[in-house]
């Protein structure tokens, strides 16, 4: 990663601030679910299918955390700081 947030800060200080990370997670999530849908939905008990499901949920969870921080927590903190 080449952005300043990803190179220097710890996880909680960079989450929600790096657009490149959010773009990568979006692409990985979509690609993962498309591959699962077209290749493995008929046999959801196979190892490959379970691995793709777990990866998809991990990508979606991390993307949700990024978006939550970016659009809810960080603006809330900024408004709170201006009010003081």
Automatic annotation (TrEMBL):
The chain crosses the membrane at residues 21-38, 50-73. It comes from the Bacteria. Pfam families: DUF3624. Keywords: Membrane, Transmembrane, Transmembrane helix. This is DUF3624 domain-containing protein. It comes from Vibrio paucivorans.
């Amino acid at each position: 990663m080449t952005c300043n947030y990803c190179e220097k800060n710890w996880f909680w200080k960079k989450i929600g601030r790096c657009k490149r990370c959010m773009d990568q997670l979006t692409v990985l999530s979509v690609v993962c679910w498309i591959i699962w849908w077209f290749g493995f939905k008929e046999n959801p008990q196979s190892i490959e299918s379970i691995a793709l499901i777990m990866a998809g949920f991990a990508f979606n969870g991390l993307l949700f955390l990024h978006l939550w921080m970016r659009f809810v927590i960080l603006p809330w903190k900024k408004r709170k700081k201006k009010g003081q």
